[in-house]
């Protein structure tokens, strides 16, 4: 089990140079030879690799996938959202919905930085519509301000919890649940993309209910509508989510990942 355990206890950057068969030392950073400091004459300054390692540690502590490390608000490309297509005849265009979701994500970060509590945010929409991108951008924006965030892909998290019963990891179910409950900001990506049972429904409800009671915000993404979520994860959980989250819809004509390959 590797996913949330990264958040709890992992040392990524213990540098041990490899020795080749020729007795040579191979360094991870050839500039400072893994010392972290470069000395030029009487002047010593920090090597750039130290800053890079610090940034990577920050992403790892948030459990953020490497591919999301560069997700930022200014890279959220509105060109993938049609100005003409709409969910219904008189509703807003896909482009208008995306603009509203982007503004909502920025507002969430600004509000959290000011008061640390308040409403969370839910992005719903079809596959490949940019929901996870915005969740990653929120995570990165908060990390830039040294805030504590935990990014969980819900199906993976539930699998991790189940694996604790077979003692396949060093952490207990209580350890994993406690980390998710107590994180200052919790991102739940792909909520609903799992074969939900009464057991998984109860775990998600316990998590959401705890954070509701303690005023700890959630960022949630889902492919499901609110009605579908009622059926899949249960009405009592959805009731809590609606209570604590502003809801934004994202729609695209074509999966953005597919569209990007055509560029």
Automatic annotation (TrEMBL):
<dbReference type="GO" id="GO:0005524">
    <property type="term" value="F:ATP binding"/>
</dbReference>
<dbReference type="InterPro" id="IPR003593">
    <property type="entry name" value="AAA+_ATPase"/>
</dbReference>
<protein>
    <recommendedName>
        <fullName>AAA+ ATPase domain-containing protein</fullName>
    </recommendedName>
</protein>
<dbReference type="Pfam" id="PF01695">
    <property type="entry name" value="IstB_IS21"/>
</dbReference>
<dbReference type="GO" id="GO:0006260">
    <property type="term" value="P:DNA replication"/>
</dbReference>
<dbReference type="InterPro" id="IPR002611">
    <property type="entry name" value="IstB_ATP-bd"/>
</dbReference>
<feature type="domain" description="AAA+ ATPase">
    <location>
        <begin position="117"/>
        <end position="249"/>
    </location>
</feature>
<dbReference type="InterPro" id="IPR027417">
    <property type="entry name" value="P-loop_NTPase"/>
</dbReference>
